[in-house]
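[job 4417] fold queue: 2 targets
>>> target A
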Amino acid sequence: MSISNPPKALLFDVFGTVVDDLKSITNALATAASEKLNSGSASIPDPVRIQASKTSWGDFAKKWNEAYGKFVATYDPSTPFVTVSEAQHTSLLELVEAEKLNGLWTPEELLTLSRKWHFLDPWPDTPRGLAALKQKFQICTLSNGDTELLTDMAAYAKLPWTRILSAEDFHAYKPSPLVYEGAAKALGLTTGECALVAAHLGDLQGASKVGYQTIYVERAHQERWSSAEVERARKEGWVDLWVVRKEADDGGFLEVARRFGIERC
């Protein structure tokens, strides 16, 4: 990537890159459990109440997120399409059963809880960083989340997208080439005129293989590759722009904007 010859569009992974999915879901689970356990009207079997009281909702959220990762990694594009929202609901039901929490929530409450993925909190730098980058680029989603989910999230988190593109549009899931190539075509661009911004090297590697430029933004607890794999990727140099994680709130997308010469952030 040449800063003097930048891409025409920045396409953003969303889960973990734009929003802090694990923290948001952990908080949603903990709140929902606390409300039920402290409700005077809720009839919860004692074994379930005991199990819920000792459950680590952070660990539960990680398992839920891992189920999502397995779903998209093993999805067969030749089969009838299943949205991420549908898959999240199914995996929640399975996880509740596996963790012996059946009876803590009603079916209606479980459906509502599964839709918390539509309303995730952005990283602190996200709103300002996207607004800054929008001064110079088209900024679009390119997420495995379905269109309804991404639209809800954009309204909730005030994300100023130029356009919302979803893997649902191409009936496949990243890292399938169908998604990256389909997104570039939808924008009327070549893959070389697009850059993917992501906190996951596996996603960036898939985009790079079809000609995308790549921008890696480190986020806390998001990278699925091992430290050795991350270091190898750094040395191999196929990531065009690498933004290290800062504890302060002025990194992330704000740092990406500064690298492109956008000072008014």
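>>> target B
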Amino acid sequence: MQRRMLSREDEAALGADETEVRREDQDKINRFSRLHQRETLLEEELKAKAKDKDDLDDISNELELADEDEKVPYKIGDSFIYLLLPEVQELLASSTEKIEKEVSAIDEKLGGVREEMQQLKVALYARFGRSINLET
């Protein structure tokens, strides 16, 4: 049993109006591919940052129940240091702000990547029509 992507009629129809791929077209296709890979990496990074932020928010909520005079372990690098609760809360707040700035920067990069991908899609679909698939 042979599997076919297109029916014989579709293949014949595409063969009749086949468009030659020029160097600039191939460059656009390659650029789209690289942007798609970058988009995927940025989305994964964004998910990881969102998880980190959620974890920090959960920790902050848990620390609200602790006593003011209590020393709390705070992880710096590979070691834990016991600090007073107010200091830990300040450190968590600054870490949360840092992550929010990083998320904002990633969102901005992702927007730029998606915008460029959309421009390339328009140009490539205008040139090749249905004979190219750029849906991600």
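[job 4417] complete. Note on B: The beta strands are 71-76, 79-84.
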